Amino acid sequence: MKHPATYDYPVSIIPFRRPGPALSPVRWLSGRALRLHATLLVVAGGCLYAGWFELSRARAGNDLSWVYVFEWPFFAAFAALIWWRSLHEDKPRAPLAPSAAAPAGPAEPAADDEQLKAWRDYVARLNAQHPPGGPRGRRQ
Q1: Torsion of CA 36, 13, 77, 84, to 10 degrees
Q2: Which domain holds residue 60?
């Protein structure tokens, strides 16, 4: 008898790791990946520099800068998270072909739908009382 917590497929406890083969070095060195690496270096480097700058201001007596001392490294970590997710995202999937069973447009409501009939009458009365186009003096 199998233990109830065992699975027939690979399960990962790390939320951003997808089961399957490891990434190939080609993905890490593709043109897209190199652009992501460069972007991470610029963004994370800028955020860490801003955090260091705010630390020097906070140590000089600017109390508000203490907030930014912790905020800028958080932004750098967020940039690293986005970089990681972008680097490991799956290939885009092809759109599904429309099936023959699916209708091409919205389904036409039943002809004997009383609520729909009442709604259309209500809208027709409103349009008769207040024609579209704004106030009478401002119509063109």
Answers
A1: 0
A2: 25-87
Distance CA(71)–CA(96), nearest Å, equals 42
Q: How many distinct structural domains can be found in the chain?
A: 1
Maximum alpha-carbon separation in the chain: 83
Residue 104 covered by a domain? no
Instruction: Assign residue 18 a region (left: φ > 0; alpha: ψ between -120 and 50; beta: otherwise).
Output: beta
Would you call 36 helix, strand, or coil by DSSP? helix
Could you tell me if residue 106 is inside a domain? no
**96 falls within a domain:** no
Direct distance between the N- and C-terminal alpha carbons of the chain, in angstroms, rounded to an integer: 80
pLDDT tens digits, one per residue of 85-125: 888 776 666 666 666 555 566 667 777 788 888 998 999 99
Q: Global pTM?
A: 0.49
